[in-house]
Design brief:
Layout lengths: L23 H21 L3 H27 L3 E5 L3 E5 L11 E2 L6 E4 L3 E4 L7 E7 L2 E7 L6 E4 L3
Antiparallel strand pairs: 1-2, 1-5, 2-3, 4-6, 6-7, 7-8
Length: 156
Amino acid sequence: MPHTHRSRPQPLQPRHTPRRGFTLLELLVVLAIIGVAAGGIMLGLRDSQETTLYKQAEQIAAVMEIGRAQSRARGLAAEFAVDEEGFMVKDPSVAIDEKKRTPWLAKGISVSGSLPVRLGPEPILPAQTIVISLGEHSLRVGTQGLKPFALEELQP
């Protein structure tokens, strides 16, 4: 008997047209990822006024510490003084010298508090604090007497 080869019937393959577009679920996942990324970026960015104020406050704290160290080393009194144009560390009996003044980083910065700030020559200073403001933002720079001048954010 001759052996005939029978072919198996092939199941019918449905005709698929290629998929176009995205499913609703895929779109929602992409939107959620974009939302989370945008939120993280926004939290990481600061207002330009706030950034300027932080830079200015850090600069002032550093200048006050340098003035404090120089005052102790020389044994002479020194103070931190401000005006509309800027700030400087100076001898208490001398007016602000235009050449030695450090200008403000931005117009509109104001300083209030225990001004002028006494920087030495005593090793232990009285507690002193100044508040630096720009727009709606404010920072406090101060010392309790023994510790270095440092900045802290004010609660709104």
